[in-house]
Amino acid sequence: MKQKDEKYQEIDDSITRFCDAKLNAEFTEVCLFVLEKLRRKRPSPLIIGKANTWACVIVYAICSNNFVFDRSQPYYMPAQDIAGWFSLSKSTAQSKATEINKMLKISYFTPEYVISSLQEHANSLIDMMCAADELRRLL
Q: The domain containing residue 102 runs over which residues?
């Protein structure tokens, strides 16, 4: 049990250091929320693999879901910069982040995985898409 707690804390510390240096507290909050969800899963996938890898793929998944890889966004950062910070390849980070996305059903339309400053914009987009679906059904 102690070993699991130490690994969890190491992942938490790595995520926090990265977000403090490169992003902001909103990203830290969402990334740590994902970490906690993974910790509570039974069996927890965090048992297998390195702490550094888990920290990277959690950050990568949340950054991807919050448009960080889009040059027009205020927190733009290339994907390879995130992977490089954690000493992973971009392809490894991307493939493992895809696994987390599927496991936790992370999407642009799930508010718990969107930073709060983007949620208003995301909610407007969701409302527009729902209205378009409703219009299609009526036609």
A: 2-107
- Domain CATH number, residue 45: 1.10.472
HSE-CB of 119 using CA atoms within 13 angstroms:
11
User: In this structure, what token pair is assigned to residue 93?
Assistant: 């980070």
- Does 86 reside within a domain? yes
Whether 77 is covered by a domain: the verdict is yes
Contact 53, 100 (CB under 8 A): no
In a domain, 63, yes or no: yes
The token pair at 43 is 């069996």
Residue 68 DSSP SS3? coil
DSSP letter at 42 equals S
**Per-residue confidence in pLDDT tens, the chain, 139 aa:** 676 789 999 999 999 999 999 999 999 999 999 999 999 999 999 999 999 999 999 999 999 999 999 999 888 999 999 999 999 999 999 999 999 999 999 988 888 999 988 776 655 555 555 556 666 677 6
